[in-house]
Amino acid sequence: MYYCRPKHKIMKKHTTLLMGLLLLSIAGMTQNQAFEQLGFLLGQWEGTGQGFGNNQSTITSSFELVLNDQYIEVINDSRFEPTSQNPAGEHHIDQGMISFDKGRGVLVFRQFNIEGYINQYVLVDSLSTDRLLVFETEHIENFVPGGTARWTIEKLSEDEVETNFYVAFPGREPSCFGTNTLNRKKP
Fold first, then answer.
1. Taking a C-beta distance cutoff of 8 angstroms, is the pair 137, 123 a contact?
2. What residue ranges define each of the domains in the chain, with the CATH number in brackets?
3. Where is 32: in which H helix or E strand?
4. CA distances from 36 to 32, 58, 60 (A)
5. Residue pLDDT, tens place only, 50-89
6. In whole angstroms, what is the distance from residue 132 CA to residue 118 CA?
7. CA angle at residue 59 from 114 to 135, to 5 degrees?
8. Cβ atoms of residues 180 and 162 within 8 Å
9. Model confidence over 145-183: pLDDT tens digits?
10. Fewer Cβ neighbours under 10 Å: the N or C end of the chain?
11. What CA–CA distances, in Å, run from 171 to 17, 119, 147, 164?
C-alpha cells in the first residue's frame, strides 16, 4: 500500500528545513562579519609600554582565531623594568577570549589577569571606528565595587597599533593607567 502525504505538508516541511538552513548560514556570517572588524589585530605583536605604575615595559601580544574560528584568543605578556619602589620589576600576564554574543549582537572580551582581576568588556560600536576599537567593562570581578575600565586599540598602520587602558574608580573620572605601542612581528 502506498501512502501519499498532502502536498502542502511536504512543502511546509521543505520550507521549514530551508528556513533553518538559512538561519544557520546567517548566524555563521554574522560571526565572521563581527570578527572582520578585528581582522587587523590577528597575529603576533611586540612593543613597549608606559605607565601601569612603572616607567617602561616590554610587551608581546597575540590575537589568534581558535576553536573552529569561534573565538579570538588574546594573550598579553608584559615585563616591567625595575624601579626604586619595585627593584625586582614586575611581570604581568593576561589571557582572554573575544566572542560574538549573537543574542545581544555584540563582541564580548573576557580577560583574566594574573593579579586576579577578571574583566568582561563589550565592544562599544557607537565609539568604535575602522581605526579605533573601544571596549568597556560591563563587569569586573575582584575589583573595587562600582569601578570600570576601558581598553582602546587604535590602528596606526597595518603593522602598528596603540592600546590604552583606562580605569575609573567610583565617583571619579577615568584616568589612563598605561599605553602600549605594538608592532607586528615579522613571520
1. no
2. 37-184 (2.40.128.20)
3. helix 7-36
4. 6, 28, 22
5. 886 667 899 999 999 999 999 999 999 999 888 888 888 8
6. 23
7. 70
8. yes
9. 999 999 999 999 999 999 999 999 999 999 999 999 999
10. N
11. 54, 20, 9, 21
Q: What cell numbers appear for 168 in the block?
A: 575609573
Q: Which long-range contacts (CB under 8 A, 24 or more apart) does 141-146 make?
A: 141/117, 142/116, 142/117, 142/118, 143/117, 144/169, 144/170, 145/170, 146/170
Asked if 118 and 142 touch (Cβ cutoff 8 Å), the reply is: yes
DSSP 3: -
**Which sign does the torsion angle of CA 145, 174, 63, 49 carry?**
negative
Which residues, other chains included, contact 176 with Cβ-Cβ below 8 Å and sequence gap of 6+? 51, 164, 165, 166
